[in-house]
Each structure stands twice: as C-alpha cells, then as structure tokens.
Design a protein that fits this description.
229 residues; alpha+beta; Fumarylacetoacetate hydrolase, domain 2; 6-stranded mixed β-sheet; 4-stranded antiparallel β-sheet; globular; binds manganese (II) ion
C-alpha cells in the first residue's frame, strides 16, 4: 500500500501440493489433544476442555528448510501434529458445519522451547516465548480437502534421524477437527488463511543441532526439517 510508512512484509505462505501457495493469516494451536500426551505433561485427559495458544503467522518454515536452533533454550522439543487450513471464516461455527470451513490439511511441527514453557507454567505467565518464536512452525505442503477428503483416522508419526519418536493415530485425538473448529470459533472469528495445529501425540522429546526430523500423516502428507548444525 502506498501510504505505509515502512515496507509491508509479504504475507507468510505455505506451498500447496499440486501447485499454488496458501497465505497464512494466523496460527492457532490446541494444547493436550491426545490422552497419552496429556498424561506425559502431567494433565488429566478426562477433565480438561480444549485450550488454545498461538504462534505468529511468519513462524511457518516451509520447503524442508533447515530450522535454526533457537536462542534462549536448552530444550527444543518436537510436537508432530495434523494442521487444518481454514478456507472459509466464521464465528460460532456449528460442529456439523465445521468441515465446510476447511480448505486442506498438512503435517506440521509445533516446535517448543520446553524449558521456557515450563518456567511460564510455574510462574503463571504466557506461553508465547515457549511456543511463538521464529521458525517455530515447520510445515509440509497443504493437501486440498477437495482431493484428500477430511481425515479422521490414519497413522501420524515422527522419526528423528530415522528412529521413531512419535507414533499414533488421528482417531485418538480427544477433540476431533469439527469439535476443535467449533470450540475455537467461539473465542475468535476464524478467517480464511488461519492454520490450526491440532495437538500432538505422546513421545515429545528434545532435539539438537544436526538432527533430521521427518514426519508423516497417512493420507495427508509429510513434514521435514533439519535442525541447523
Ligand atoms: Mn502442540
């Protein structure tokens, strides 16, 4: 725009399988959406409502690019997740109508500075610096729902240097994609371009410089990054 007083940043975007790019507006994430991960983080999967946090849109890291090891942490953790790409916005979306708002799906990594997140939890402070740092959202190509449908089951797995670290099934999510969209859209009006990271299964752990992370979700796609040596 002509009247911006400094140059405006280009919108963050994620490549689409088959061509084109999906412009990212915001990134929402669900906390604790698989029972075994909820337990490993000290929570009770039977009692907790879904809750949400965010990352900046420009935290997306695409094209299998290396992820720089972030500053201010000694505990960079991986969280392998199904990502929902919203194509049509809305507030107070009904669960039965929710999938009509989805443009596509991708495999993504909710990278976490676990030590900073842990300190924030103890002090009752926001998670932002544990979750919303630069390059904290490696993501693979977005597969259009028009092509792959709406996956409610299928293997979700992550290997680090070829060894399986996380392995589960989408059917084990506590809150389904339609339920997540319905809940989240009560708090904010969803908009085209929003991404929702839907939570990680158990097995989260630390990675270090040079480690290669390779994730796959059956019927959806892959995500890959190497922590820069
Ligand atoms: Mn997560």
């Amino acid at each position: 725009m002509q009247d911006f007083v400094i140059p405006a940043a280009a919108p963050a975007a994620v490549p689409v399988a088959g061509g084109g790019r999906f412009p990212v507006r915001r990134i929402f994430c669900v906390g604790r959406n698989y029972a075994e991960h909820t337990r490993e983080m000290g929570g009770d999967p039977d009692r907790e409502e879904p809750f949400f946090f965010t990352k900046p849109a420009d935290a997306v890291l695409t094209g299998d690019a290396d992820m720089p090891y972030p500053p201010m942490t000694g505990a960079l953790h991986h969280e392998m997740e199904l990502v929902v790409a919203i194509g049509a916005g809305g507030a107070e979306i009904a669960e039965q109508a929710a999938l009509g708002h989805v443009w596509g799906y991708a495999a993504g990594l909710d990278m976490t500075r676990r030590d900073l997140q842990g300190e924030a939890k103890k002090a009752g402070r926001p998670w932002d610096m544990g979750k919303g740092f630069d390059h904290a959202a490696p993501i693979g190509e977005i597969a259009p729902a028009a092509r792959i449908g709406h996956p409610a089951r299928g293997r979700i797995a992550l290997t680090v240097n070829g060894a399986v670290r996380q392995g589960s099934d989408l059917s084990r999510m506590i809150w389904s994609v339609p339920e997540v969209i319905a809940y989240l859209s009560r708090y904010v009006a969803l908009a085209p371009g929003d991404l929702i990271f839907t939570g990680t299964p158990e097995g989260v752990a630390a990675v270090g410089r040079g480690d290669v992370l390779s994730g796959e979700i059956e019927g959806v796609g892959r995500v890959r990054t190497r922590i820069h040596p």
